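Just scan this pair:

***
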Amino acid sequence: MTTIKDILADSTAKLSGHSDTARLDAELLVAHVLGMSRSGLIAHHDEQVDPNCIPVIEKLLKRRIDHEPVAYIVGYKEFYGLDFVVTPDVLIPRPETELLVERGLELLEQCEDPLLVLDCGTGSGCLAIVIAKNLSDKKRAYQVYATDISEAALEVARTNAKKHKVNDSIKFIESNWFSSLKNTDKKFDLIVSNPPYVAEGSMDTSPEIKFEPEGALYSGRDGLEALRMIIESVSNYLKPGGTALIEIGSDQGRAVSELAGALDQSCVSYQIKKDLAGHDRMLELLRVAE
């Protein structure tokens, strides 16, 4: 009979050469099929695997060998300590995007209630939901707005908001960036956005990327189309003293600085922040207090 230890070793061997994280992928896929945690696999490694589970694991391994991301195979991805439902309608949350959450929560500590937060291009809802959950835990008075041009993405985000019990605190709006907010007088303490910033035709060698929605990845010939639109308009939606945090590509610091530098510097100030790997990762743009 096959034990958990055996199936993990076999799965890892099959994924080797197809994934740089073969062991981790094997653990996630096997744990998903067996309904266990990764730590549970280790604790029960000598237990036998239900024979009916083996062909299911084999099918998932084939999908991973074909480079389908693990997150889409199992249907979820961890972000900032929470699990998020993901489908091919939304970008898979990346660890580097957590920088926006960490800095955003720091900034909101300095703001007075009631807080207004906007997540522009919400996708899976991970930014809006993590921020909302943290504010709820701290008993803050707040309202989060989350926009996306894709109704399919908004459905995923709503599902995640219900999953994490913050659906009453987030208003989801179908919108192309700020278009649905133009006729409102809302001004936000914090705006966060992880827009598409990959140049069309980019020689991205990752075979996994072809499974993700193009609209959440690519942004014009130079990769700056969405960033240009957001940077040009974002200060109009900030309260005086409010801040926008916008994720950028690791090679876009200079170009984004030029875009932000073209704004009226009597009204805004900005800086480029680096991620833990030392790469340019975020534009922090402040609307100067009046």
